[in-house]
Amino acid sequence: MVHQKRSQSRLSPYSDTTDMNDDIVTLLAPRLAYFAGVARTEHVTRAAHEMQVPQSTLSRAMARLEQDLGVDLFARHGRTVSLTPAGRTFLTSVERALAEIERAADEVRADADAATGKVAFGFLHTMGAETVPALIHAFRADHPRVRFSLVQNYGEAMLEGLRAGELDLCLTSPIPDAPDLVARRLDEQKLRLVVPADHRLAARRRVRLAEAADESFVTLEPGYGLRRITDALCSEAGFRPKVAFEGEEAETLRGLVAAGLGVALLPPPAVPRPGVVELTVTAPRAVREIGVAWLDGHPDTPPVAAFKKFLLSRRGHLLP
């Protein structure tokens, strides 16, 4: 196929292809819907009437589009026009691009709908079995059609998800202190010293953390909030934990404890685990604060605003 080229394009030559592509997109994008309308009707006056724009505006836009491309898109026959081979090729891609824009617009409008919109919600793995299902169940009593995109991850990854626009809200611990985030304390959760069922401390109900100073610990990996809390509590108790195993999920750590591979500081399990005993820590005070965080200055859609208000209303009784 040979396209008829105009003698001169308005586009300046660029040595940087990326810059040139950005420039041509900026030039062409506002006129694509106009082009599709003229191509569909093959009549500038009729297209102008359907799109409710002055005919002179539409004619200038088409002339400018051809000038920017350096290619004739239309053959003109009095008041009517027909597509050139180049115009037909261009129209195929333009219609595909406009359909994708329409699809994207429908999607974001649907996500923002007060009744049926979507909330992208992140939370810690340890809150997935009971806490989050109970929260969503309670929220949907008044908002039955709101949809959720749920992400389980460790704290730092969720904060990056907020910053990247991938999450609207997240439940995390420790509560972050960052200038670009807003965080509110919702509750606190007691941590227990989990020991094997045949451990020397297993017959006890309460224990001072210092009594486990010589034990091997199984912990979450560095970067996890619970790992930072464990290290801080052990330091407060006067020792540095001897870490034997590191993992990514609390119930896996319980399994390692049950196998006699160490002890761990963990929140209560959703379901009691055989082979372990969970001891109350009397000193230091072993708790982790749970908070909700969001990106500062980020506008909320109606469903996100409703769920945020709901979470804040649960302050002090977030956990089952």
Which key features would you list for this structure?
single chain, five-stranded mixed beta sheet, 320 residues, 10 helices, disordered N terminus, four-stranded mixed beta sheet, 13 strands, alpha/beta
Can you walk me through this structure?
- The chain is α/β, with parallel strands linked by helices and about 325 residues long.
- It contains ten helices and 13 strands.
- The chain has helices spanning about 15-30, 30-40, 45-50, 55-70, 85-110, 130-140, 155-165, 225-235, 250-260, 300-315, and strands at about 75, 80-85, 120-125, 145-150, 170, 180-190, 190-195, 205-210, 215-220, 240-245, 265, 275-285, 285-295.
- It has a five-stranded mixed beta sheet with strand order 4-3-5-13-6, sandwiched between helices. It has a four-stranded mixed beta sheet with strand order 8-12-7-11, with helices on one face. A two-stranded antiparallel sheet has the order 1-2.
- Helix 8 (about 225-235) links the parallel strand 9 (about 215-220) and strand 10 (about 240-245).
- About 25% of the residues are buried.
- Mean pLDDT is about 90; it is low at about 1-20.
Secondary-structure topology with pairs:
Elements: H1 17-28, H2 32-41, H3 44-51, H4 55-69, E1 74-77, E2 80-83, H5 85-112, E3 118-123, H6 131-139, E4 147-152, H7 155-163, E5 169-172, E6 181-190, E7 192-196, E8 206-208, E9 216-220, H8 225-236, E10 242-247, H9 250-258, E11 264-266, E12 276-283, E13 287-295, H10 302-313
Parallel strand pairs: 3-4, 3-5, 8-12, 9-10
Antiparallel strand pairs: 1-2, 5-13, 6-13, 7-11, 7-12
Helix pairs in contact: 2-3, 2-5, 3-4
